[in-house]
Design goal:
globular, Ganglioside M2 Activator Protein, Chain: A, Uncharacterised_DM11_DROME, alpha+beta, seven-stranded antiparallel β-sheet, single chain, 5 helices, 11 strands
Length: about 200
């Protein structure tokens, strides 16, 4: 009996799963982090976008061209990366359960099972060069084949998403003794959550 009820519950949860898209507020897409610690670099300081084209239409971001790193770290530094989704409620940005983090971004940036790869690094064509220096060495060029990005959360079960949200993406460097470097990188992408029909 319990097995049958469990299977019915799992089946219904699959039916009730929903996809959501983040409709961007800002045509510039990236915004500085509102709660960054002193010394934090904005993404446009850490990476030169002069030769990277980022265009937005109603539901897709189109990206092509090259980006060059300005962030200058030591070869043996470790980079921790984090993605977190926040919901705006009653005048505050509240954390949600949607978080993704890695303690060693350079080790997984080309791992096919990682979201970083699926949504970004798979489109970097000069993999051998980038894998060698990761994003640690100033002057490293990331050559992108043209790609399209939709900011989506898929197969979400549970509470309905509605209202304003922001994603906070951060990269933090640590030296060989695991001491954080002062110049971490942080940026936000803000928008309205909309149910995909």
């Amino acid at each position: 009996m319990w097995r049958i009820l469990f299977l019915i519950h799992v089946g219904l949860a699959g039916i009730w799963a929903t996809d959501y898209e983040l409709l961007l507020e800002d045509p510039d897409i990236f915004a500085p982090c509102t709660e960054a610690r002193p010394g934090t670099m904005f993404i446009r300081e850490a990476i030169n976008f002069d030769k990277l084209t980022v265009e937005q239409d109603p539901d897709t971001i189109h990206i092509s061209g090259n980006a060059t790193t300005n962030w200058d770290l030591q070869p043996n530094d470790r980079i921790a990366a984090k993605f977190a989704l926040f919901h705006y409620q009653r005048g505050n940005w509240e954390p949600t359960v949607f978080t993704m983090a890695t303690q060693d971004f350079c080790a997984i940036m080309y791992d096919k099972d990682q979201y970083w790869f699926k949504y970004w690094t798979t489109f970097i064509t000069n993999r051998q060069e980038v894998q060698q220096d990761c994003i640690k060495k100033a002057g490293t060029t990331l050559i992108h084949e043209p790609f399209h990005l939709r900011l989506m959360l898929t197969n979400i079960r549970g509470a309905t998403l509605h209202g304003r949200y922001k994603t906070v993406i951060s990269f933090e460097a640590f030296d060989e003794k695991n001491v954080p470097r002062p110049n971490s990188v942080c940026f936000e992408i803000r928008g309205e959550a909309e149910k995909v029909k």
